[in-house]
Amino acid sequence: MKKILVLHTGGTIAMSADEAGNMAPGAQNPLDDYNYPFADEIELTTEDIFNLPSPHITPVQMLALKQRIAKAAHEGIDGVVVTHGTDTLEETAYFLDLTLPNELPVVVTGAMRSANEIGSDGLHNLETAIQTASTPDAADKGVLVVMNDEIHSARYVTKTHTTNVATFRTPTFGPIGLVAKHGVVFFESLLRSTVCPIQTVADNVFLVKAYAGMGPELLEAITQPSTNGVVIEALGAGNLPPVTLPAVQALLDMGIPVVLVSRCFNGIAQDVYDYEGGGVQLKQMGVIFCQGLNGQKARIKLLVGVSAGMSGDELARFVGTANS
């Protein structure tokens, strides 16, 4: 019999709507009263580790969650399921993916509709997540996100719609598996990841989005000794307005790592254009190009690297390598 640990952290999956349709955390998690249908096959242990809407989740909670899962690996647990609010689910999942060894399957899930809404998806997502975590094939695939019968890699999945139950998608690459009628089916595996078993988390790692007519003001405001890193969602393949370049250079001169991704949701950032503010110049300046990740994921990766004590070329390799 498989032993699965379910860790509840809050979010819509743990909320109920009032008469006006407004959702908020309650005194009790509605999932606590649910009778799981796996009694003959899976031994479930559940814990309410947090009860927080996902906008309240910070890297501090992510680290606590990582530490609890790491402990579970030495308690005879065969897999872990994390229930989480969807707004920042992809960031927590990727944080866990970067900081946990692949000792046991870890699956993150959530819901777009609260427990008492018509068409609530929480229980179904939870059941399919438990099925996935108990499947031997789920091992060695990194942290997984299971929503709406699809299995996604934590590295690339993102929330694409504000309310649709099919919100979680993996642009460019697609899901790596499905939860079908007769079981869990995997179609792909990711390249192996570098694991950073960090014990603390750095702060002041910022995310800035580029836009037409952008000036240097935002970058100048965070050019501070307390800043540990900056991720910029750049234009197109990886370009910035020329007027921002002195501010970028000032960050680099202070030893603050600057990481570039594209604000496009498909494709990767590349040093393609050789004009003022183009990717070729930015790379020559020392900006790190992060391939395949969106801005929020790149920020998590930079934060983890800095928290692990990386700097210079080591940090550039870690953040800039697609399969790390």
From TrEMBL:
InterPro entries: AsnASE_II (IPR004550), Asp/glu_Ase-like_sf (IPR036152), Asparaginase/glutaminase-like (IPR006034), Asparaginase/glutaminase_AS1 (IPR020827), Asparaginase/glutaminase_AS2 (IPR027475), Asparaginase_C (IPR040919), L-asparaginase_C (IPR027473), L-asparaginase_N (IPR027474). It catalyses: L-asparagine + H2O = L-aspartate + NH4(+). Keywords: Hydrolase. The active site is at 12, 86. It is an enzyme of class 3 (hydrolase). Its EC number is 3.5.1.1. Pfam families: Asparaginase, Asparaginase_C. Residues 204-317 form the Asparaginase/glutaminase C-terminal domain. Residues 3-188 form the L-asparaginase N-terminal domain. PANTHER family: 60 KDA LYSOPHOSPHOLIPASE, L-ASPARAGINASE. Belongs to the asparaginase 1 family. This is asparaginase. It comes from Lactiplantibacillus songbeiensis.
